[in-house]
Amino acid sequence: MIGRLKALVPQRHPTRLIWHKLKSFVATVLYGFPARKLTVIGITGTDGKTTTVGMVTHILLKTGYKVGSASTTYFQVGDKREENETHQTSISPFLLQKFLRRIVSEGCKYAVVEMSSHGLVQGRVNFTYPSVSAITNTALEHLDYHGSMEQYRKDKGKIFEMLHGKGTMILNASDESYKMYQKIPTAGIFTYGNDDSDFWLSDISLKASGSSALLHVNSDEPRTLELSVPGSFNLDNALCAIGCCRALNVPIGSCIDALKDFQSPPGRLEQIDEGQDFSVYVDFTVSPQAYIKTLTTMQSITGDNGRVFVLCGSCGNRMKEKRPEVGRIASELADVVVVAEDETYGEDPHKVLDEVWAGVKQDECEAHKIFKRREAIAWILSEAKPGDAVALCGIGPYTTFSTLKGPVPWNEAEIAREVLRNMK
Questions:
Q1: In terms of Cα–Cα distance, which of 397, 132, 87 is closest to 95?
Q2: Model confidence band, residue 1 (pLDDT cutoffs 50, 70, 90)
Q3: pTM for this one?
């Protein structure tokens, strides 16, 4: 009955939004306004949020701060992590406020919170009182909810309005959202991304085992920034994280030293190594922009010596417009494309797969449609040769897989490892 009534009320109807915000207030009162006892760093963006949350948390821990963090993938208190079993960035305000109270009770003084556009619009992250608000980037995603890119960016910008003119904004100066956000009143701004920014990079070097660049900070002498995770986009995430930590007065040298041994969160370009002579990665790649970043990273890993393989798809009941785009991008940037099932969330997975497949340019790549995801993983790994790179995209770190019959146990990284071990 409640579900049918909810279906009659549009997602952005004032009544529904008031209901969400009322729940946030009740949750905050119930758990005693825990964020008032914390310095909160809020991070949003289309891609890279979870990794950036992890980087900020890692830097703060390495420099002696007592910190907890909440992200799409996990909850962390100190150096201990546990899975976010909801698989959602926009978690219930009751769950969020309960977690914030928990980290306060365990002695944390800082909280790093991943904030989605849905959560910002619905007020799920109200009463978190961020002192630092950051954005990674904005790109085509969630237009089924927001309606347009302009509205999507406005909704993302609510994270900066939450500062109430008193905190520090961390802005990506190379993103199209920059001019919109820099107009929002605030006490301070750090920018990153281009050579007019507070933090920018040159002499970028990308390898399968990591990445490095020269970090420029205002007029200071450039310093070498080294990451043990691959991908130029992770260097961008690092700039955002460094901006957040500088807003908390963490020295640049401490940020650089801490990031040297940072490891990506599970399912974020997670390397799978069972002694095979080709590279395999599991990544929570879902947006068209993320596919571009992941596959160009695969290209940098293979160079001229190998092929790029990608397992791709799209989940159900989410922005249908991006499905053929995913297929198109995969076929333009990969040599071998396998389209397979993804999480359904109630929609026919065969229909979703066909919509992704419709975008694949079959004359530009070797393309295969293999519905069963486990079979697709087994096939793609069996076809890879020395020097190739394989990206298993879409599911990432999740330990369940949504089907029309309900969730089933799933661990993409472990499935890949099992397949590789059986190939020996």
A1: 87
A2: very low
A3: 0.89
